[in-house]
């Protein structure tokens, strides 16, 4: 491989890295929302997987059935995290197509 080709390849890699970093920053700024129990519990998170809000409708709070509330919170939280993972994989996957990257890289 000639030096010029290596230089071009390095420039392309740096350009791709900048695009990846921009895409990742945009993902981190996104807001994701999931609900369970027909909207009785809603969980909001950012692209960094930080939970930013939890809304619980008053009528779902039953002291005699705390387990149901816990299940609704878990369901909504797991769903919002899955949404973030799916969006991250879709967005960042465009940069790793054709590359043999180890699983779970992003």
TrEMBL record:
Keyword terms, alphabetized: Cytoplasm, DNA-binding
Localization: Cytoplasm, Nucleoid
Primary site of residence: cytoplasm
Signal peptide positions on this chain: none
Domain of life according to the entry: Bacteria
Chain residue ranges for the region called Disordered: 1-24
UniProt cross-references to PANTHER family, sorted A to Z: NUCLEOID-ASSOCIATED PROTEIN YBAB (PTHR33449:SF1)
Functional description taken from the UniProt entry: Binds to DNA and alters its conformation. May be involved in regulation of gene expression, nucleoid organization and DNA protection.
Oligomeric and partner information: Homodimer.
Homology family: Belongs to the YbaB/EbfC family.
Name of the protein this chain belongs to: Nucleoid-associated protein GCM10009001_27830
């Amino acid at each position: 491989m000639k030096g010029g080709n290596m230089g071009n390849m390095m420039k392309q890699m740096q350009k791709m890295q900048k695009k990846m970093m921009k895409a990742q920053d945009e993902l981190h700024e996104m807001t994701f929302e999931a609900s369970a129990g027909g909207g009785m519990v809603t969980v909001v998170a950012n692209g960094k997987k930080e939970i930013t809000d939890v809304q619980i409708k008053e009528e779902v709070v039953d002291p005699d059935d705390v387990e149901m509330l816990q299940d609704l919170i878990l369901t909504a939280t797991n769903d919002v995290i899955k949404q973030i993972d799916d969006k991250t994989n879709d967005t960042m996957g465009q940069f790793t197509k054709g590359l043999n990257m180890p699983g779970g890289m992003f």
